[in-house]
Every structure is written in C-alpha cells, then in structure tokens.
Protein: Antitoxin
Organism: Natrialba magadii
Amino acid sequence: MTKVDAQDLRTNETDDRGRIYLGTEYANKRVTVAVVEVESDHPDEDELAAAYREASESAEELAEEWDEASDEAWDGLDE
C-alpha cells in the first residue's frame, strides 16, 4: 500500500454527482480516499435568513425615507 504524504493532499471539486477525478497516475490501483472537509458553494440557511432580515430592514428604512421625502415634496407643491 502506498502511503500519502500530508504535502500531497489536494483539494478537488466534485461533479454534480459528487465524483472526483483523481488522475491517470491512479489508474489500475486501489485508492483509499478520506474526506477531511466539505465546503458548500451555497450559503447555509442561517446565512440566508440573516441576509433576508438585513435586506428587509434596509427596505423598510428606505421606504420610510421615501415616504418622508414624498411628503415634503407634496407639501412643497401645496405652497
């Protein structure tokens, strides 16, 4: 069995079915693979919820500012 040095560890991306191409140097050899860490390309639910709350709060603030500016504009027309 060939041992892998820690310096030989590589990060690969999987295809849409979770498969990784190891390369031709591993052809016709038995390979043991360990998954050390998994990163997602998509934000998790907590990140999405926080972003939604932030956007919602920003939209409310913007609507309030617009309402005030609109009222001032209408009041200016009445003069």
In short: Residues 6-78 form one domain.
